[in-house]
Amino acid sequence: MIYLDNAATTKTAPEVVEAMLPYFTERFGNPSTIYGPGTEAKKAVNEARRILADALGAKQEEIYFTAGGSEADNWALKAAADAFRDKGKHIITTKIEHHAILHTCEYLEKQGFEVTYLPVDQDGLVDPEAVRAAIRPDTILISVMLANNEIGTIEPVGQIGEIARENGILFHTDAVQAFGQIPINVDQLHIDMLSASAHKLNGPKGIGMLYIRTGVKIRSLIHGGSQERNRRAGTENVPGIVGFGAAVSRAVRIMEEKIQKETALRDYLIERVEKEIPYCRLNGHRTQRLPGNANFAFRFIEGESMLIMLDMKGICASSGSACTSGSLDPSHVLLAIGLKHEIAHGSLRITLSEENTREEMDVVVEELKKIVQKLRDMSPLYQDFMARQENRD
Amino acid sequence: MYSEKVMDHFQNPRNVGEIENASGVGTVGNAKCGDIMRIFLDIDDNGVVQDAKFKTFGCGAAVATSSMATEMVKGKTIQEALQVTNKAVMEALDGLPPVKVHCSLLAEEAIHAALWDYAEKHHIVIEGLQKPKNDISEGEEEEEY
């Protein structure tokens, strides 16, 4: 199997599983208790919190564990909106956010908030000046993702954070795809809140975090016990938290090497695909993109067919076609960068890990060439296009 | 997600291609929604479908239903071919996931569109055949990559 869907989820690293195991068995205690196993669990939770804080340039008490990235996004937006509703009802975000942000914004709109969804350019970049221009006296929150999950474009969040800071507006970033892949420092980027998830960086599923800068007063998410400084009650997912810590520690350790390796592989793949498969385009910014992300649109064919054929060759990837999104519309991100519907249907996302090899890229390109041609030979759009080309000559 | 039969017809689609000077050609669907089906029929003087071919842009289910539908109309009279409904195609494929039922409807429409084209060319009326919905976006502008 050649696994190329690391933006969907990653393999839990063996050292992460190893670190987690004792917290299911001998160190099973509840961190809120005072005897041996409980204290051990408490220590482990705090150690994980310290690792995450260090990775972000944050303070330990600014890290709040959640059940995942979507929960962190929901919490950040709903709780901030609730806390500042007397100050204003306007929120700024972008058209290319993850559904955890977009659908939460739609929910908030039903609650009476107004949301500006900023457009992006053809590479998927948000213009910081457009953020500035969208600010109103009643703007209470800006949320712009650090890197896009589909096309991999890395947003200028530092500039956006600075603009938010100048205007005294809370700034949240969804860093689910970026955390552990590229360096992030919450002070340098002027971030007030940041969401992340463990399973995108070789950690376990079901555990995420929200960074909340000291002094930011937002509502608690779950009421109950005093866990997570009263802000997110419930007995901690200790093995998950320990796994998150181990995954971040590993990610920080290997980051430089991982970035180099994935960037080289990604550029090799992009170069070969662009050179060897006609009528294809790269989606997302060419250089300002996540090291492991390549996203293509192949004209005249549909993404799900491509995925099934790749799967038959043991290659796992993803697409933004309607058939894979469960609706009739292709990915909102691909439409936002200006792709026509029929071209967006033919998209293919390949997301690498540090374990992928050049040989695997060669296999993928060779298979992809055959698959794209086979599907084009079947496609009436390709037939019509070729007929028009002939008439033109 | 797909039955073995669907996977078989997707992996080894029957009747892919086109028929030159076909008796009837029908194209249905919409590139915007991600599915376009074109079915070519060769119908002899006795009104029997001698051959059927297809070209499809779409998902696995769209390809498989095109393949099955063309198989099913071959050797049939026009009236029999009209009875190849989306339900019949779906049953022959051992079912489709609910979100893919529209693909089988498209196959039925494509056959009807090809038969309509045949009827128009031959100035005949096929009993029970209605003018198919044809919402394919024509004349889209080309862009260079």
Spell out the blueprint of helices and strands.
The complex is a heterodimer of chains A (about 400) and B (about 140).
Chain A: E1 2-3, H1 14-20, H2 36-56, E2 63-66, H3 69-83, E3 90-94, H4 99-110, E4 114-118, H5 128-134, E5 139-143, H6 157-166, E6 170-174, E7 193-197, E8 208-212, H7 238-276, E9 280-282, E10 293-298, H8 303-312, E11 315-316, H9 322-325, H10 332-336, H11 341-344, E12 347-351, H12 358-378, H13 380-392
Parallel strand pairs in A: 1-11, 3-4, 3-5, 5-6, 6-7
Antiparallel strand pairs in A: 2-8, 7-8, 9-10, 10-12
Chain B: H1 4-11, E1 24-30, E2 35-43, E3 49-57, H2 60-73, H3 78-82, H4 86-92, H5 101-121
Helix pairs in contact in B: 1-2, 2-5, 4-5
Task: Please explain how this structure is put together.
The complex is a heterodimer of chains A (393) and B (145). Chain A has 393 residues and is of the alpha/beta class. Helices cover 43% and strands 13% of the residues of chain A. The radius of gyration of chain A is 22 Å and the shape is globular. Chain B has a 3-stranded antiparallel β-sheet. Chain B is globular, with a radius of gyration of 15 Å. Chains A and B meet through α8 and α13 of A and α1, β2, β3 and α2 of B.
